Amino acid sequence: MSTPQTLSLALRDSSTMVRRNLLHARRYPSLTLNLLLTPVMLLLLFVYVFGDVMSAGLGGGGRSAYVAYLVPGLLLMTVGSTAIGTAVSVSMDMTEGIVARFRTMAIHRGSVLVGHVVGSVLKAVLSVVVVGAVAVAIGFRSTDATALEWLAAFGLLVLFATALTWIAVGMGLGAPNAEAASNNATPLILLPLLSSAFVPVDGMPGWFRPVAEYQPFTPAIETLRGLLLGSGIGHNGWLAVGWCVALVLLGYFWSTASFARDPKRARARVSTSTPAH
User: Fold this and answer.
1) Cα separation of 61 and 238, whole Å?
2) Interval 86-143: pLDDT, tens
């Protein structure tokens, strides 16, 4: 079979898998809504309960200043929350035996993973739009950002979502069940709590500061914050892109290797889950 035909089949099968994952999200919205609720509740909690107090640590400016500081971190936390749903979805596909059935069909092998990744990135973008709309409703404004900075911010969100999604796919493939997959992916929503999302790194205790500095969320948050607020990003932009590229490569090779060596485990799961006649 020629290369153009192979590419055409791969694109066709991948688009089918993307539609499948989006349909699952529409039919079972509870998982997506539960994960989306966490960043929205944190946004409202920190703005309306702690906003005035936290803004004092930023040099004043009131609640509106803290909203501007908080929103970029919450947007990236939303991406992490969506990735947890991806890990659960991948694990469910593996444990329920549907992947074993896909292996017996004449479809492109990589389309199963591509469908999860692309579908998750699309859901992450939609979730970010929802959280962003809530942020605007409570007072967030980005008046100093140029059109190019807005485009760069969107690109960073998509790149970061792609990176975390590949990691989540690997976590889902390596988990024995959906509950374990959710537990494995919990750091994707805990790491933003240990970053500069809520308070500046300079205001953290000295022993805790390295935890916040040397992780992927902090440079990504600082970059997104600088782009949305029209301020400088310094070296954080390169660090954020570097982290994203590294995580994409790690997640891709982890996921493809796990998926390639899984047929025996998948068949065993199908045989044990199928009742005897």
Assistant:
1) 30
2) 998 888 888 887 777 777 776 777 788 888 899 899 999 999 999 999 999 998 988 7
